[in-house]
């Protein structure tokens, strides 16, 4: 039974009412999105290092171009919430994003056969990221709509399931990249072939994830909707939460510089470097499952606090490899793998409650816009992180053949990584999370203690009234840097 089947069952939001069908489609699309987001990472970095021969600082600046389109996620979410295409708010945007993404990667694959300038590579990466962000933000909007109606015992379940599927897809993407780098003379060639296949799979599952054909939402005028959004964003809890998300995401990272050290000084093969990406996303997958099973009800402040403390200390572990302290006891590769796995697990534990908080704070009818704003803030932090990292490498003289002051960069980055501990109080307690209104009927006053709240409005992070599951994104997969 397809989306066009007149016998199909649909709920009030236009999504398939059959939870099993929705979850299957969500898992498939999340899996393919994970492949799409992870597969290009290693080939692009190897291409920049070995063929374009860029310096570490230059790589940081070029890769930041891939993060820039994520700042447009709120615009994409706003359009999908308010502007239907052929009577549908979700499916056409997802299809358009996926198709344009294939075109973008075909251009990059052709560039892989030549010797393009850094500007050309940066522009191509920008447009590739722009197209996948369009599809990604709309898929997130669909999942957030469902996530807000979860029962209390299931809160966070759909989002963590979605992230597990994305992480599984990322593991597969990393493995394909490893194999492809050995089999193909031009590594970007594998990207176009594999992404074409995964995009076709995604397109086949869009129909059961999105709007009912012909369904028109009650469209609000852009001026009215903008006013509602302004009043919504004026809420103190939301402003403090978004500020903390921005602070949490913008710390610099030494990992790109350390990648050069692994290749040039430790002589890591492409397989070993690619294995790090696979291990990282495998850790994401396992940690998302652990979070889904045991950690969903743990207060968000506690999870983020431990994440920051552990990673602040763990970041200094790279010094042991840099100065070859552990080389006689533990192989460098094994130590780096263990370090990256624990780092990734901490990143996921700190990331999941933040995206669930973003879903719970999104008002009905504007899920795409508000949730995308949270995600774009994290992307802005990633851009700041890349740019600051590039400046630090340049100032400290870290080059592809000179790592004299790499130790200083590691120490500074570890110290700055712990800085958000000073701002933990910006995150809300459960008691601070007032029920959110429906979009277009904004009532921002907090509910009085003991007051009855309609089930459709209950979106507190730990106490919701409804049923279903939960999923997130990324994002862009969380950057463990």
SSE inventory with pairings:
Layout lengths: L18 H20 L2 H11 L4 H12 L5 H10 L8 H21 L6 H30 L9 H27 L4 H18 L16 H12 L2 H14 L5 H10 L5 H26 L4 H15 L3 H5 L9 H30 L5 H30 L9 H12 L64
Helix pairs in contact: 1-6, 1-7, 1-8, 3-6, 3-16, 4-6, 4-16, 5-6, 5-8, 6-16, 7-8, 7-12, 10-16, 12-15, 13-15, 13-17, 15-16
Organism: Plasmodiophora brassicae
Keywords: Membrane, Mitochondrion, Transmembrane, Transmembrane helix, Transport
Family: Belongs to the major facilitator superfamily. Folate-biopterin transporter (TC 2.A.71) family.
Name its key features.
disordered C terminus, single chain, Growth Hormone, Chain: A, mainly alpha, disordered N terminus, globular, 481 residues, mitochondrion, transmembrane, transport, MFS_trans_sf
Molecular structure report:
- The chain is an all-alpha fold.
- The protein has one domain (19-211, 234-429): Up-down Bundle (Growth Hormone, Chain: A), CATH 1.20.1250.
- The chain is 63% helix and 0% strand.
- It is built from 17 helices and no strands.
- It is globular, with a radius of gyration of 22 Å.
- The model is unreliable at 1-16, 211-220 and 436-481 (pLDDT under 50).
